[in-house]
Structure of VWA3B protein:
Amino acid sequence: QSLVSSSKWLQHYGLKRNKLSLSQILSQIGFQHRKDYVTTLGKPVASRYADGLFPQYRRAQDGSVYNLTAKKELILHFVDCLMGAIELYKQRMEWLTSESRQIFGVIQERCIVIVLDFGTAAPAEFDLCRDALSMVLVEQVTQIARFNLIWAARDLMKWQQKSSPVSELTVKAAVMWLWKLDHMTAVSHTNPAEALLEAMGDEAVSP
């Protein structure tokens, strides 16, 4: 799946976009049973047209009643469409909550700089952080345009001086650089503020 926000994803695959919302379906399989206010009588009058002729559906949201006129085949068609939509939503949710996306979310920017601040992480935690970062590099950064890594350690270190074009080779090199970082240096004298300012100074990165 492409790295798009859920709002953009819904613009293409949402129920309303595909005319599968409840109101859209009801308008295609029946008509609303209306109650109108008659001025000459001074009171609301319920139309008795179609009373008892069609099955009726009452919307819980507003209490409106619809007379259902569609044939069974059309209703089954909408059932199939809704089942397909449910499966698509499940796949999207599983994708959003799996692998690097459950930690970093979905990267939507075309150019990013990742600032590494490991704080006082223990060796095992340090390795877990590098595992997660390696995962996001391979799974998501490979789909954008440019990237860089900045390490907020004793002396500020950059993987590259400026953000570099994404390729299989550059991502592999960045992962190798990440795993060469020294744990003792990483957990001492960190300067995340300076690293963030340096990241924002990259002209290719949007603030």
